[in-house]
């Protein structure tokens, strides 16, 4: 990684690197620090600007992109192909701009004593018949073992669950057919099943589980214990199966132990079989958790395991991606093996229905694609695109040809390669997780940007590149710096989402606050009132640009104060913010929204509050005073 330091000091070297990247010399050599060079020399990456993809000022994008924000804890919305960042949706983080984690409404979603951070990896938008229906986006928190649901009308999370009995949720995927009724969350780290401190020292008793959540009620349906650590996962297009890559089949505690066996697994769950057992009461529970747990470990079953199929897969497989538009195949990307494993879903059904004798019989191809294959995505012409971390490339290969090659035919399934900059992780083509796959754009989420942007200190931006995949050859069309650290992304057509412009007054997001006002005899849309209830004080006010309905209120030191603001503006984009100086309080109040915050007024004196969202020529004057009498 000495390249990084050198190029900051030496601009001419940086220019050299940039030029060499354009002419194609740099791709493999820069990535060389991470592993061996490319198996096949790629043709040079084209860094040409491309007018046909340029979104002019004032023009709208063709796609909404949903981006994980990684350890920023958030989800982001980008316009594609411009790659303009349109919104950050705070989820597991505390957000200064919107007051997420500070308002009562967001705290109700986060739950009591919620951690202040998170690590999001896999955003997934809900489906109806394997097409995006624009209702919800689900996202995992690898850091604090949570799953959140984001409402895509208001772009705020409305449910956050902490998953019991497991540690670290990594893979996350959704049922596609008939619609998203279930969310699947893959537990990664193995821990004692009742992790209460009683059993610390016996790793042979550490396990993890797949968790199934009801997407509508956000209640747990079941958990299934597995062998090994679960990684990524995806569902089929029939609504029956979910497959997860599974590394550390040796269940080791250290890297050498984890690297033991040549093969790990792809674990495929038969969801109806598990749910029949749960319905019949054939499950256990663990500790205080009421969630039904079934045992899907191989060793727990005589003969065939009715719940899970363990498909031997070259060591440490990573991405799991079902191929659209019909969902015939599932590709598991090899990571430590230079191969992808192609599984045919109909054969998985055959296995569970009693046919096929060897679990490997569900595998129909295992093409060699290059070094460090992590994730695979698709176009609408039968081609797969796999990210190669070590080669810093995207490789395009044809699925049917890879099957022919697996069956012994002399056929070259590799169609194209392109250098990316650098060390790509996730990859996603437009609509590639749905029936509407259109083969137009592909995002390459690169983990290193090195010399691609102006240096800004030791922390570099990630580089989310955009590639045009509509032709025979891939074409690099955009470098997109992003903040730490997108793992996965997806694109849906602009017409597949219909976000609200203005809240409706009966929005469930602030329904509890409305109920509190009703109990106080307050009409939020009209009243500006202070209600005292012992040492609890509730201050209700409206906001209409450029003033708050209450410009002065009086409390006593030590009072627990709840401030409720209702934005009576009805015009889209006229948002207000309520900021209380020296109290760490600031929050959003968008048109027709009610927001509230509760705190202890512990500082006697005069404290100004002001509107933090520029809303009017007299925005600076939109303010008021909290007067705190000494105790
Ligand atoms: Cu980064 Cu999907 Cu968490 Cu692969 S995972 S790169
Ligand atoms: Cu209201 Cu600024």
Automatic annotation (TrEMBL):
Looking up InterPro entries in the UniProt record yields: CcO_II-like_C, Copper_CuA, Cupredoxin, N2O_reductase_N, N2OR_C, NO_Rdtase, Nos_propeller, NOS_propeller_2
| Chemical reaction(s) catalysed | N2 + 2 Fe(III)-[cytochrome c] + H2O = nitrous oxide + 2 Fe(II)-[cytochrome c] + 2 H(+)
List the transmembrane segments: 21-40
Q: Does the keyword Magnesium apply?
A: no
Cellular localization per UniProt: Periplasm
Q: In which pathway does it act?
A: Nitrogen metabolism; nitrate reduction (denitrification); dinitrogen from nitrate: step 4/4
Q: Which residues form the Cytochrome oxidase subunit II copper A binding domain?
A: 532-631
List the Gene Ontology MF annotations in alphabetical order: nitrous-oxide reductase activity
Q: Please provide the record's keywords in A-Z order.
A: Calcium, Copper, Membrane, Metal-binding, Oxidoreductase, Periplasm, Signal, Transmembrane, Transmembrane helix
The entry's family comment says: Belongs to the NosZ family. In the C-terminal section; belongs to the cytochrome c oxidase subunit 2 family.
What function is annotated for this protein?
Nitrous-oxide reductase is part of a bacterial respiratory system which is activated under anaerobic conditions in the presence of nitrate or nitrous oxide.
Question: What assembly does the database describe for this protein?
Answer: Homodimer.
Name the chain's protein. Nitrous-oxide reductase
